[in-house]
Amino acid sequence: MSLESKPPRAKSAHTAMVVASQKLERTRIVQGLRLHFERVARAQDPYEAISQSLDDRVAFLVVSLEGLARSDAKFIESIRRHCLDLRTLLLVPEGMRPIARAFLNSGADGMLSSPHDDHEFSCVVQAMMRRDGPDALTGLPNRPAGDRAVPIEIARAVREKRSLGFALLDADKFKRINSRWGLTSGDMVLANIARILRQSFRATDLICRWGGEEFMVLLPGLPPDVEEARAAACAKLRSVLAAVAAWIPPLTLKRGGPLRVTLSGGAVIYPGEGTEPMAMFKEANRRLQCAKDQGRNRIVCSETECPRPGRSEPPSLLS
């Protein structure tokens, strides 16, 4: 295939947004982003950007720092409340690197000097999209996006003095689905699980494809009290598991009998049950395995439901 006959680059269906005070700069950035995104929104300032993000979930944000102040950096956090898988690229004029640090601390992912080179801009956008872009099969954020979101949501929970729910969900007996009905049917099942998850959780919750048939869920803004937070998170997760179990796959099956799709899961609450992301992951995964061992199609949300090996109840004072 010659260079002239290369197929056009596939564009993301997700929305990008440009924030720039100067019209000519906005136009140039929009032209560069249209090589990668089907939809590109424009905003003259942070306030307009926040308003637009409420109506259209933004996946990629380009911010020109020309005319902005250090105090404007918080608007990135405001947008991320509605767009948890957001990636942000800063365009930094000469002399504004000290201000850029405030924007990086608020969640921006990278920066380019301004005025920028169009080819370099395109390469950086592509690299950021590859790193934590949406999963091709389900359309959900992928694991790198989830990894990046966990410490961000932990920091927000600390500031707001709220609890954060962290859950791992896994499709039950998924290898059997692939072996009996084929990989195409397995992909269809995963895509529909993702659809149900998107429809069932709040816009402020983050759902990502953690890997294979496993999904990660972050539930921000839960009550400060750990038991209240656990009750709210578990009630929601159980309702989602019920919605998945109620779905009937539209398959014409020639063998293997009817197909029933269920999920099992494990959940923990920050900060009541851990403060480090890796420790939270390990405990949620341990509880997920307990859910599998206890019969599947269930969520395990506490150590009481999944006691650690060798741990016994304290002796009674009446014994």
Could you tell me the number of beta strands? Answer: 10
* Radius of gyration using CA atoms only: 22 Å
Indicate the low-confidence ranges by residue numbers: 1-8, 312-319
Please tally the helical runs, counting DSSP H or I stretches of 4 or more residues.
10
Strand order across the biggest sheet? 2-1-3-4-5
By CATH's scheme, which homologous superfamily of the largest domain applies? Reverse transcriptase/Diguanylate cyclase domain
Which CATH first-tier class of the largest domain would you pick?
Alpha Beta
Tell me the overall shape: globular
CATH architecture name of the largest domain: 2-Layer Sandwich
SS strand fraction: 15-25%
Q: Write down the domain tally.
A: 2
Query: Can you summarize the main beta sheet?
Result: 5 strands, parallel
Rounded average pLDDT: 85
The percentage helix is 40-55%
Give the termini distance in whole angstroms. Answer: 83 Å
Write the CATH fold name of the largest domain: Alpha-Beta Plaits
* Helix and strand element order: EHEHEHEHEHHEHHEEHEHE
Classify the secondary structure makeup into a structural class: alpha/beta
